[in-house]
Amino acid sequence: MTVTLVVMKTTLLIWLVLSAIFLCAHAQEHAAAAAEAGALPDQSPITLGSRGLYVFLRSNVLKAAQKMPEENYSFQPTPEIRTFARLVGHVADAQYLFCSLAAGEKNPDTASIEKTKSTKAELVAALEESYAYCDKTYNAMNDVSGRELVKFQGRDVPKLVILNLNTAHLDEHYGNIVTYMRLKGLVPPSSEPPARK
Fold first, then answer.
1. What is the DSSP letter of 147?
2. Tens of pLDDT along 29-69?
3. H-helix or E-strand spanning residue 139
4. Which residue range forms the structural domain that includes residue 86?
5. Digit-coded pLDDT (tens) for 92-105
6. Which CATH number belongs to the domain containing residue 17 in this structure?
7. What does 58-97 look like in DSSP terms, one character per residue?
8. What is the pTM of this model?
9. Domain count for the chain
10. Distance (Å, rounded) from C-alpha 40 to C-alpha 27?
11. String of b and e for 63-73 (b: at least 16 CB within 10 Å)?
């Protein structure tokens, strides 16, 4: 193993630990705000925490999609991976998949957004619509209903775990989005300095 690889792995590990601490702090802030707004009962701290993390990541992905210039939506770092447009479409498609499963509903995303939409306006709108759909699912969930089991890949899985898989998927692809933005010389939303009050 080369020194460069060891340094890269160590840097990645440090970044992951710091990111986890940062995300947990933001999740608690969003959870408290959601509780104050009456989104979920106070006796659902696990669901509130899960929703807070989802809201934080959802916000960053949407801001990134809005910030990326139209001409960069066709950007594809290598021929083997998605364009930025397809990446945003994939995130929207997955939102419908996970949230409809957790809601116990038929997936309303009947046409693949990733394969049918390509402009910035279309994809930002599709992303916003997928978030509105998921918001309803998250807002209807609590620590009791989150324990109900649904089938996922042949296994019985609690509904709240399905929503957590959605959040993990958002986090995974936000990491991709950050890379696309950095390659285009753009600062991703999570790295922007906080707005002064």
1. G
2. 555 555 454 454 457 899 999 999 999 999 999 999 999 99
3. helix 120-140
4. 3-188
5. 999 999 999 999 99
6. 1.20.120.450
7. HHHHHHHHHHS-GGGTT--SSTTS--HHHHHHHHHHHHHH
8. 0.77
9. 1
10. 14
11. ebbeebeeebb
